[in-house]
From TrEMBL:
Protein name: RNA polymerase recycling motor HelD
Domain of life: Bacteria
Pfam families: UvrD-helicase, UvrD_C_2
Key words of the record: ATP-binding, Helicase, Hydrolase, Nucleotide-binding
Domain UvrD-like helicase ATP-binding: 213-614
Organism the protein comes from: Neobacillus driksii
InterPro entries: DNA_helicase_UvrD/REP, HelD_bacillota, P-loop_NTPase, UvrD-like_ATP-bd, UvrD-like_helicase_C
Record gene name: helD
Length: 774
C-alpha cells in the first residue's frame, strides 16, 4: 500500500469515526425525545376519558362531547404518528452506524471553485447544526452521478434543470461496524471488485439490496419518471427483481409527500417469493409495499362458489398429461383464452347481452320461488337500454330489495313464523322487551303489549330468514354468472365464429368443467372480466404504482384486466421471454413479448448483462435459448456445469453424495429441482431420512437456508448456490425449453444435472466444451 493510499485510508477512517460519533449524538437526542413522546402517548391513553368532557343531557351537549372525543383522538394519533416516525429514524441511524456509506464522489460544478464531497448511504444525515450533509441519500438527485458516470465530465438532473460539472473522484467503500474493510477508487463502472465481492458470496434465504452496486442501466429503471408504462425485458439474473425493489424505495423517497408504501402494489409469482423479497425494503429503511399473487386476486373475485384451478395445477396438468386424449384441445384452448381476440369476443357477447340473453336465477324462499328469473329478466329489459348493463343491474337490485321488503311484511303473519318464534333465544325476547320499553310500552299507557311483542318477534324471525336473500341481491348474485360464461361457449360452438380446428371441443370442455363448479386457470381471467362488464366494478384509485414481476407469465388478456382495474396507476413490468414457462408450454402470447409499444408514455428497457451465475454457467445456459449470444455474463468464474448419466434407481444415492460435495465446497443453499410436484415429493421422502431437507410446495410461504427439494416452476425468481437437476432427460420437448432454461439459470455457483435415458435433446445445440460429462 503506497503512503498516499495509506493516508487516504486513515483520513477516510477518521471521517467514518467522526460520522459515527455524530450518529450516536443524534440517536441519543432522538431517544430522549422519543421517550418523551412515548410517555405522552401512554399518558394520553391513560387519561383519555379524563380529558374528554362527557355530557349527554341535551343534544348540544352530545355534539360537544363528540367534538371533544374527536379532538382528543386526533391528539393521540398525531403523537402516535410522531412516535412511529422517530422510531423509524432511530432504526435508520442504527443501520447508518453499522455502515454509514458505500460511496463517495467529488464533484466540481461548472463555474464553482469548491469541490463538493458527496458521501452516499442508505439515508441522509446532516451535521450537528443541520447545515451540511454528512451523508446523502442514494436517491437524492446528486447521487445519480455515482451510478451514471465515471470520473470526468458529468451531470445530473434537478427540478431546476441539468447541473453540469466534472467528477474528480469516485470511491467505493465496504464498511462494517464502522470499520472500513475495503476501499477502491473506480473508473468506468461501479467497481468490479465490489461486485466480485458481493456476487461471490453465498446465496441468502432472502434477497439483499443492491444500492451500493447498482449498474447504470439498472439505474435507468430505478429512476424512471417519465413513463406511465415501463416494460423491462431482462435476461435471467440481470437484476430485474432487484431493480424493481430499489425502484419502490426510490418512488417512496421521490414522492414521499404523496406516495406511501400502501399505494404501491407488487404482483409476485408465488407466495414463497413474497417472503424471499420481503427484507430488501426494510434493509433500506422503508416499509414493504402491498404484495399479492395474481391468483390471490382472482380467487378473491371469484368467491367460494367455484373450485378455481391455480397456475401451478395447470402447469402440473401440462407436465403430466402429454398423452391425455384432451391434452391438445386444452392447450389450444389455453392459447386462445390468453389472447385479446378472446377478450374481443367477450366484448361482442356483452354488447348483445345489452338487448337480450342475460341469465338470472330465481329468488327462492323456503323452497318456493318468490321472484322468478323471468320476472327479473323482463324487469331488466324493460329498463331504458341507453343505460349501461351495470347501471341497469343496480336498478334491478334496488327494485328487488324493495320487493323483498314487501315480502317480509307479507310473510310476518304466516303460521310458520308463529312456530319459529317459539324457538327464539332468550336474548331475542329480551331485546323485544327493551324495544317495547323504549317505545313507552309496559306502562299504564299500554294495553296490547303481548301482541306488540309477538309482532316484533315475528319480524325478527322473518328478517333473519330473509337475510341471505338480501345479501345475495346486494351482491348482484341473482345473476347467473356460471350460466352466462357457459352460454358464451354454447353459442360460440353453434356460431363457430372462431377459426380453430377444435373450437367445438374447446367449447364443450369448458362447459363440462363449469358444470362441476370448476374453473380452469385459463378461464379465471375471462370469467372475472365478463363478470366486471356485467356487474360493473369501480376501478381502484388507492394504488398509484403497480409492479408486475415475472411478467412473461401474464397473458395479454390478463394484463388488459389489470390495466382496466388500475387505470390511474403507473406500471412497471419486468420479465424475460426466455423464461415464459407457462406460455412456453402452450405457445400462448405473453405481455412481455407481444405488447405493442404504443404512445409516448410507454418505454421499454432491455437488460442483457447478467450477474447471478458464474461465466461458465451463463455460457452454458445462454446456448440453450435463441438469441442467447446476446447475454453478457459477469466475469466471475467457477466450475463448468456437469452432467452425469445414471440409472434412475441410482439417482437418490448419487444426489446425496452431490449434495455433500456442494456442502464441502462451502455452499449453503442447495436446490434439488424436480420437474413436477409428485417427483419432488418422492425425492423428499427418500432424502428426509438421511439429511435435513425442506420440501417446497405451491403453498409454502417461507423458505430457509439449507437443502431444498422444489418443483421446477416454483423455483423461478429465486436463486441458489448450487442446483442439482433431478433428471434432466425429462426435459425433452421444445415446449419445455424455457422451463429447462429457467431451472438451470437458478444456479449461482454450481449446476449439476443427472440424466437417465439420454442427455436432454434440448442440449443438442450446446457445444460440448461448455459442460463436463462426468
Ligand atoms: N447491481 C447489482 N449489484 C449486485 N448484485 C446484483 C446487481 N444486479 C443484480 N445482482 C444480483 O444478481 C442476482 C439476480 O438478480 P435478480 O434476482 O434481481 O435478477 P432477475 O433479473 O430478477 O432474475 P430472474 O429473471 O432470473 O429471476 C441477485 O443475487 C442480485 O442480488
Amino acid at each position: 500500500m503506497s503512503d498516499t493510499v495509506k493516508s487516504d485510508l486513515q483520513m477516510e477512517q477518521e471521517r467514518v469515526n467522526f460520522v459515527s460519533m455524530e450518529i450516536d449524538k443524534k440517536k441519543l437526542k432522538l431517544q430522549k425525545n422519543t421517550g418523551g413522546v412515548s410517555s405522552d402517548v401512554l399518558e394520553l391513553r391513560k387519561t383519555f376519558w379524563e380529558d374528554v368532557t362527557v355530557n349527554m343531557d341535551e343534544p348540544d351537549d352530545v355534539i360537544e362531547t363528540a367534538a371533544s372525543i374527536k379532538q382528543q383522538a386526533e391528539l393521540l394519533s398525531e403523537r402516535e404518528r410522531t412516535f412511529k416516525q422517530m422510531d423509524k429514524q432511530i432504526r435508520i441511524l442504527e443501520r447508518l452506524k453499522y455502515s454509514p456509506y458505500f460511496g463517495r464522489i467529488d464533484f466540481l460544478e461548472t463555474d464553482e471553485k469548491n469541490v463538493d464531497q458527496v458521501y452516499l448511504g442508505i439515508a441522509s444525515l446532516m451535521d450537528e447544526h443541520d447545515e451540511n450533509f454528512l451523508i446523502y441519500d442514494w436517491r437524492a438527485p446528486i447521487s445519480s452521478l455515482y451510478y451514471d458516470f465515471a470520473p470526468g465530465p458529468a451531470s445530473y438532473p434537478t427540478m431546476d434543470g441539468e447541473i453540469e460539472g466534472e467528477m474528480k473522484l469516485k470511491r467505493q467503500f465496504i464498511i462494517r461496524a464502522s470499520d472500513i474493510k475495503a476501499m477502491f477508487d473506480t473508473g468506468v463502472t461501479i467497481g468490479d471488485e465490489m461486485l466480485q465481492e458481493v456476487l461471490g458470496n453465498n446465496a441468502n434465504a432472502q434477497m439483499k439490496s443492491i444500492v451500493a452496486t447498482i449498474q447504470r442501466e439498472q439505474n435507468l429503471i430505478i429512476r424512471n419518471e417519465r413513463s406511465k408504462l415501463l416494460i423491462v425485458q431482462g435476461v435471467a439474473g440481470s437484476g430485474k427483481t432487484s431493480a424493481a425493489l430499489q425502484r419502490v424505495a426510490y418512488l417512496l423517497y421521490r414522492y414521499r409527500e404523496t406516495i406511501k408504501s400502501e399505494n404501491i402494489m407488487l404482483f409476485s409469482p408465488n407466495p414463497l417469493f413474497n417472503s424471499y423479497v420481503s427484507t430488501v425494503l426494510p434493509e433500506l429503511g422503508e416499509e414493504n409495499m402491498e404484495q399479492a399473487t395474481f391468483m390471490e386476486y382472482l380467487n378473491n373475485r371469484l368467491g367460494s362458489e367455484f373450485d378455481v384451478e391455480d397456475p401451478f395445477d395447470q402447469m402440473e396438468f401440462l407436465l403430466n398429461n402429454g398423452e391425455h386424449p384432451d391434452y391438445d384441445t386444452r392447450v389450444r384452448g389455453i392459447r386462445y383464452k390468453a389472447s385479446l381476440a378472446f377478450k374481443e369476443m367477450i366484448d361482442r357477447y356483452v354488447n348483445q347481452l345489452s338487448s337480450k340473453g342475460l341469465l338470472f336465477k330465481d329468488l327462492v324462499f323456503r323452497g318456493e320461488i318468490i321472484i322468478s328469473n323471468e320476472l327479473i329478466y323482463n324487469y331488466f329489459y324493460s329498463l331504458d337500454a341507453s343505460f349501461t348493463i351495470p347501471n341497469r343491474m343496480e336498478m334491478v337490485r334496488d327494485w328487488l330489495l324493495r320487493e323483498l321488503k314487501r315480502k317480509v311484511k307479507q310473510e310476518r303473519s304466516k303460521s310458520w313464523v308463529e312456530d319459529e318464534v317459539q324457538y327464539l333465544e332468550k336474548e331475542d325476547y329480551l331485546e323485544a322487551y327493551q324495544e317495547l320499553q323504549g317505545k313507552d310500552r309496559y306502562t299504564e299507557k299500554s294495553f296490547d303489549d303481548f301482541e306488540q311483542e309477538q309482532k316484533i318477534l315475528a319480524e325478527k324471525v322473518v328478517k333473519q330468514k330473509f337475510r341471505p336473500l338480501f345479501s345475495r341481491v346486494k351482491k348482484l348474485n341473482f345473476l347467473d354468472m356460471k350460466g352466462l360464461y357457459s352460454q358464451l361457449f354454447i353459442k360460440g360452438a353453434e356460431n363457430q365464429e372462431v377459426l380453430l380446428d377444435d373450437w367445438i371441443q374447446i367449447c364443450s370442455q369448458t362447459v363440462d368443467t363449469l358444470a362441476n363448479y370448476k374453473i380452469s386457470y385459463e378461464d379465471a381471467t375471462p370469467f372475472v372480466y365478463l363478470q366486471d362488464l356485467i356487474k360493473g366494478r369501480k376501478s381502484s384509485t388507492g394504488i398509484r404504482h403497480i409492479f408486475i414481476d415475472e411478467a412473461q407469465d401474464y397473458s395479454p388478456f390478463q394484463f388488459a384486466l389489470i390495466q382496466r382495474l388500475f387505470p390511474y396507476s403507473k406500471m412497471t413490468l419486468l420479465g424475460d421471454f426466455n423464461q415464459a414457462i407457462f406460455s412456453g408450454a402452450t405457445g400462448s402470447a405473453t405481455v412481455i413479448s407481444d405488447y405493442e409499444e404504443k404512445g409516448e408514455d410507454v418505454e421499454k428497457i432491455v437488460l442483457t448483462k447478467t450477474y447471478r451465475s458464474t461465466k461458465e454457467i451463463v455460457d452454458f445456459t445462454s446456448s440453450l435459448v435463441e438469441g442467447g449470444e446476446k447475454i453478457e455474463p459477469f466475469n466471475r468464474h467457477g466450475k463448468k456445469p456437469s452432467v452425469l448419466l445414471a440409472e434412475r434407481n441410482q439417482l437418490n444415492g448419487l444426489i446425496l453424495s452431490k449434495i455433500n460435495e456442494f456442502l464441502n465446497e462451502g455452499h449453503r443453499t442447495i436446490a434439488v429441482i424436480c420437474r413436477t410436484a409428485a417427483e419432488s415429493k418422492r425425492v423428499y421422502a427418500v432424502l428426509k431420512d438421511v439429511i435435513p431437507v425442506h420440501l417446497i410446495e405451491k403453498a409454502t410461504i417461507a423458505y430457509e437456508k439449507g437443502i431444498l427439494v422444489i418443483p421446477s416452476y416454483l423455483a423461478k425468481g429465486i436463486e441458489f448456490d448450487g442446483v442439482i437437476l433431478y433428471d434432466s432427460s425429462q426435459y425433452k420437448n421444445e415446449s419445455e425449453r424455457k422451463l429447462f432454461y429457467t431451472v438451470c439459470t437458478r444456479a449461482m455457483h454450481r449446476l449439476h444435472m443427472y440424466a437417465t435415458k439420454e442427455i436432454s435433446p434440448l442440449m443438442n445445440e450446446v457445444p460440448g466444451n461448455l459442460y463436463e460429462l462426468e
